[in-house]
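Lab notebook: predicted structure, single chain.

Context: the supervisor wants predicted structures on file for every construct in the current expression panel, including those that have not yet been purified. This is the next one on the list. No modifications to the sequence; it matches the entry in the shared construct table.
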Amino acid sequence: MYKIATILVPFNFSEASLNALAYAANYVGRDDHLKIILAYIAVNGNDDVSTEAFKKVEEKYKAFLKHKIEWVSRSGSLTESIMKIQKTEQVDLIIMGTHGTSGEESAVATNTSKLVAEADCPILVVPSESHDFQIKNIAMVLGKEEIDDTQVLGTLLDVARRFNAKVHVVTIENKPETYGYSEIDEKNENAIQYYLENFYSEHTFIENPDVVEGILTYATNKEIDVVAILPRNHTKNSEPSEGQLTQMLTLHSKVPLLAIN
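Prediction complete. Output recorded below exactly as produced.
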């Protein structure tokens, strides 16, 4: 079963990255089986951050964490650099902060949304509005398609088990179809029950022509702490999607988003 042991936090001392680090620290706590690595990427080749700056961050969390925070520095494209670090450091989960977008910028991709689209590992996106750490209720978004690789649910189980959280599965009915009775629906339901064990709470079907609005409204009304999604841009057994839903949730969700790539 998938186990999260190494967490990577893209870090540039911005408010969003500081918030993501605080979230990661709360996620890890005093667990000696988990460690945090900070990744500073000098996108424009201006690697002017001193070792002392990182040591101050390290010192701040010294008493809180069991393992000392590690850090690496690279130059180049943020997405490519993070993906290389993820492989060389055998990272199991990336936790990245975001300011999101709004208004006229609502469809503009950010560094975070680009990374979520490209990376082939779980990413937990932490919005700037999310300051109070809690993982008690997780909403997993499930569409009409068959879950491509059911083993990815092991990631969700690891998170749910760690915090004794309930997983609420939600499907947005945005088309006039019959939901919940097809052979694919039954396969998905069996896989969810098998992998999520007693952490699986319920499967809710909501009618809303706007899938993103339906998910975000559900998350607000049910006081969801994390929205989980299974992006289809890396699927192997079916036609990959362009990841538009994942991008829109990355940009607009006010609660942390777990993209299980």
